[in-house]
Amino acid sequence: MYGAQIAFRDYYITQGILGSKWVGLEHFREFFTSYYFGRLLKNTILLSGLNLLIGFPIPIILALLINEVRNSKFKRTVQTITYLPHFISLVVICGIVLDFTKNNGLINDILSFFGIERILFMQDPKWFRTVYIISDIWQHAGWNSIIYIAAISAIPQDLYEAAKISGCNRWQETIHITIPGIASTIIVLLILRVGRIMNIGHEKVLLLYNESIYSTADIISTYVYRRGIQNAEYSFSAAVGLFNSVVNMLLLLFVNFMSKKVTEDSLF
Question: What is the DSSP letter of 233?
């Protein structure tokens, strides 16, 4: 937190933090009036929002499906296969994605086989979000489902036995017992996810994007990287990063307040 003050200074390494000139909100004004501000904000919210909307329910659905499997060997096999991508290096994952989506890659070969014209996925801005979200779901859905599977296993079995006696089928048990039983876990994880909606993983974006798709792929975190690391504009990048953190904090507090008001489940 002490170092965060460089966002309000014209920071130079040779002068140190206290020796650098105090410029107040100058870097914030530069960012807010920048040509890129609207595009960066839009791309960040859209990419993170779509990832939340589509990617957040997938691990829940996967956990519910795995819970319904009665063959223990098949169950373990499915869990292992879905967990594995999480342990692969992000650099390798992005390399696989780029190889699969290039003009002569596997996906285009499949499309060509069915008579569909080849698509330059990573040169066409409109395809970036789709590629990012699908690859992110593939990489993390299995791993994220673990906590839901654990929450399901903690539901008392006598509830299911009572439901069977009452004549409920598996679907009714899922709707009336399983989902309500893990609702508090879902809410807490949703609050945490919303609390970092502005900090979508920039490492993956950096490894996937290029200048031809900046219009949809460039987000606040990657912009900070270019200005702060590549151009050595430490004060400006610190100001943008601080703005990101404040927005995340406000979103977290708001969602936590609404959750506590509506469901009585919250982080604090």
Answer: -
Are the beta carbons of 55 and 136 closer than 8 angstroms?
Answer: yes
Phi, psi of 35 (to 5 degrees): -60, -30
Please write the tens of the pLDDT for every residue from 185-222. Answer: 999 899 888 888 887 767 889 899 888 898 899 898 88
CA quadruple 52, 58, 63, 64: dihedral sign = positive
CA atoms within 13 A on the CB side of 168: 17
Dig out the tokens for 27 from the structure: 């870097």
Q: Which CATH class is domain 2-18+38-262?
A: mainly alpha
User: What are the sequence ranges of the domains in the chain?
Assistant: 2-18+38-262
Give residues with Cβ within 8 angstroms of 143, minimum separation 6: 82, 83, 86
Mapped onto helix, strand or coil, the DSSP state of residue 10 is: strand
Q: Could you read off the pLDDT of 60-84 as tens digits, one per residue?
A: 999 999 988 888 899 999 999 999 9
Residues 131, 134, 140, 143, Cα dihedral to 10°: -160
Question: pTM of this prediction?
Answer: 0.86
Which tokens go with 24?
A: 């107040």
Q: What is the pLDDT of residue 59?
A: 94
The label of the residue with tokens 């490492």 reads 203
Contacts of residue 154, defined as CB under 8 A and 6 or more positions apart, other chains included, come to 181
Q: What span, in angstroms and rounded, lies between the C-alpha atoms of 180 and 144? A: 19
| Beta carbons of 244 and 221 less than 8 angstroms apart | yes
- Cα angle, residue 234 at apex, residues 46 and 194 outer, rounded to 5°: 30
Question: Tokens in use for 125?
Answer: 């801005």
Name which of 6, 38, 21, 41 is nearest 239 in CA terms.
Answer: 6
